[in-house]
Amino acid sequence: MHIVFVHRHGPGQFVHLARRLIADGWTATLICETLDRPVPGLRVLRYQASHHQAGGAGGRPSVPYIEAGRKVADILHRLSLAGRKPDMVMGHIGWGGMMFVKDALPDVPAIGFCEYYFQPQGGDAGFAPSDETTLQQRQIMRLRNAIQLSTLEQLDAGISPTAWQRSRYPAEYQSKIIVQHEGIDTTRARPDAMAGFRLSDGRYLSAGDPVVTFAARDLEPYRGFPQFMEAAAQVARNNPDATFVVAGGDGVSYGRAPSRGETWRARLLQETGLPPDRIHFLGQIPHKDLLSLFQVSAAHVYLTYPFVLSWSFLEAMACEAPVIASKTAPVQEVVRDGVNGRLVDFWDTGAIAAEVCSALQAPADRQAMRRAARRTVVSRYELSGCVLRLQALLTKLSSRSAQPHTAHGPIRTGPIKTGSATSRHTPGPHWSRV
């Protein structure tokens, strides 16, 4: 079998599946704009990024996405002419790359990764009390969705990592979308009582130390960084031994940058008055170091707008870090308050601080929740099971494509169901979940 993956910054969500298929003897090709990580045996074909800017003031979000779709279709057409026609195509539908796949290869099964459908209510837009969704923002959302809907209409199947993400799509398309997470490697993300983490100043943190952790791709409002900093300042006043460790960059993955060219980190250090010597900013760190940080955490704070759920949050749960998370829709699909974690109002910094203090003062009281958190991830998001279900879907679609054709084209049947996984949300313009 020859499968082609399509992803703007690939392989992205397809990395584990690609590795598994290649190990099983499949031929795998990635069509992308940029490569986020190499995979042995994965052939990479790049297309050039559009010079047009998507979104922004006066931006035309549909233009670069349509151009990306044309470039991907051209590559697929040339593969077919060269005798390397794929048996199926699987790709992210958010940036237009899958838009013309069926025009280039009408008889080849196409599966779309359906990550996030933009709406003016109930999700990230308008979540902050001070935010007002403008007419221009609504127009941009509709144009982005138009690309997705045009793609989704022609796909053989779609995949969403969580039920909440699927629920964002129009009801008439949801039966076409299967809920299946891409998987968390729980053999690597696991508890370790002997774990340690060394800070840049030489201090060594061990499991059992009063370590409060926070992690995001970038430190910004979408992931609740301002609320974390305000809560941390409160915790610091009542817990002189607490150490705050933050992993994440100073860029902007979602939303807007702060004014005057400053970073959210610099602004919030100044606004909250949190002593700089009490908090350690690590920047973006290697994945193995992030897991070590989770293993020594005495309280891991995860806050998010109603948006895509971070891989790192599930990894923290798999490491049995005591999680304190926002009571927002993506999180509530995973966490039951008091069972496998604690849920707090996203905007209530006092409640966040109180939960952190409680975790630091009585760590033994959270042991049952920590173990339950790992069981949740192992039972619903464990990597090998998720990849096997995805592979079963591909095999089923491949067998259907071999059915006889009628005068009106291939015989189509209803949506495909793979297993019982109905669990689990990278992001606005960038679509990568951390």
Automatic annotation (TrEMBL):
Gene Ontology terms for molecular function: glycosyltransferase activity
Keyword line: Transferase
Disordered: annotated segments: 401-434
Keyword Transferase: yes
Pfam families: Glyco_trans_4_3, Glycos_transf_1
A GO BP entry: lipopolysaccharide biosynthetic process
Top-level division of the source organism's lineage: Bacteria
Boundaries of every Glycosyl transferase family domain copy: 25-188, 208-375
Protein name: Putative glycosyltransferase, forming alpha-glycosyl linkages protein
Originating species: Roseibium aggregatum (strain ATCC 25650 / DSM 13394 / JCM 20685 / NBRC 16684 / NCIMB 2208 / IAM 12614 / B1)
